[in-house]
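Assess this:
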Amino acid sequence: MLSRARVTAASNLSGRQSTSQAALAKQRALRGTPGLKVISRVSTTVRSDLPNHTVMAVSTLTYPYRDGAGATRYVTTRYVAPYERGTANHAYLEMTAAGRPKDKAGLHSLLTRATRTVALAG
């Protein structure tokens, strides 16, 4: 059971990068972070659970690091191309789930649900 988990999402990306380029840029930006160990960087597709059933391109970066108190945090950041445009893969959304390493299964489940139900307004 997750005692403390958080999913944050921001549509702070301009769509100028692919999801895989965005994940690689994040990985490079994290260099020098205490205790950082990149576990994986994977690109795939996810089908939306919303009525349109859009197939979205996603790239996911998973890594632990040590926070300021010396505790290990487990983080999964996902870049999402929320529009189905043939082979287009433009990252418009970044989602992050973070928590304790022992909660990684719950964090993964939480991020998967958030990804499958995301909708951009406007």
The radius of gyration is 14 Å. The chain has a mean pLDDT of 86.
